[in-house]
Design goal:
By secondary structure, the chain is an alpha+beta fold. It is built from 2 helices and 2 strands, in the order H-H-E-E. It has a two-stranded antiparallel sheet. The longest helix is centred in the middle third of the chain and has 13 residues.
Length: about 90
């Protein structure tokens, strides 16, 4: 998710948490005139995304949270991803 918080009645901490949990990024323009630039940043962010597949070695179906940490071998590359997933229950 890419939440965009505009105005004085927003909760930046919650929007940032939501973005972090989903693998996105939160944006906080100061006023409406900056919205176009913020949406261009979202578009640019999406253009540089890759899909990574993952198969867990833990086959336990317990519905618990499983942390996943993705690293890169290349210097200067920033990885933004979900922090994990919930295992299936059945």
């Amino acid at each position: 998710m890419f939440p965009v918080g505009l105005g004085t009645r927003i909760d930046p901490e919650r929007l940032t948490l939501l973005a972090t949990f989903s693998g996105g990024e939160a944006y906080f323009p100061q006023d409406v005139s900056e919205l176009t630039a913020q949406f261009e940043r979202v578009t640019e962010n999406l253009r540089h995304r890759f899909i990574v597949g993952y198969t867990s070695t833990n086959s336990t179906r317990d519905g618990k949270w499983r942390s996943v940490d993705i690293h890169t071998r290349s210097a200067g590359v920033r990885v933004t991803s979900r922090k994990g997933y919930f295992a299936p229950v059945r």
